[in-house]
UniProtKB/TrEMBL annotation:
<dbReference type="Pfam" id="PF11342">
    <property type="entry name" value="DUF3144"/>
</dbReference>
<dbReference type="InterPro" id="IPR021490">
    <property type="entry name" value="DUF3144"/>
</dbReference>
<protein>
    <recommendedName>
        <fullName>DUF3144 domain-containing protein</fullName>
    </recommendedName>
</protein>
<feature type="compositionally biased region" description="Basic and acidic residues">
    <location>
        <begin position="1"/>
        <end position="13"/>
    </location>
</feature>
<feature type="region of interest" description="Disordered">
    <location>
        <begin position="1"/>
        <end position="24"/>
    </location>
</feature>
Length: 112
């Protein structure tokens, strides 16, 4: 067999997509969700949800206090930090409620 009639096609690979700079964020969120799902096997979902909100609030206070250069600064910035966390949480909550509203049947096929 001769290679004289061989017509090479462009078989070069596309460059890989750049890594998602938020991948670590999504991986951590998935880990927390998996933990919540596991805890839901032995507790009411509402209790698990309340526990996760408490843990998030506690960790948020830890992060905000650690970022403050002094106790006085931390105390002065509490209202601003609370407003920031509330606003960010509400954005995430609304986005997830929107997703569940748009995809309700696929998330809950047992409900008609």
């Amino acid at each position: 067999m001769s290679d004289d009639n061989f017509k090479a096609k462009d078989i070069s690979r596309k460059p890989p997509a750049p890594p998602d700079p938020n991948q670590k964020f999504w991986d951590m969120a998935d880990t927390f969700i998996q933990l919540a799902n596991e805890n839901s096997k032995g507790a009411a979902a509402g209790q698990v949800c309340a526990s996760m909100m408490y843990a998030s609030a506690r960790f948020g206070a830890f992060v905000a206090s650690g970022d403050a250069p002094s106790e006085a600064t931390f105390k002065d910035q509490i209202d601003g930090a609370v407003a920031y966390f509330r606003t960010e949480y509400e954005k995430m909550l609304r986005e997830n409620f929107r997703d569940y509203a748009e995809n309700f049947q696929s998330y809950h096929p047992e409900k008609k």
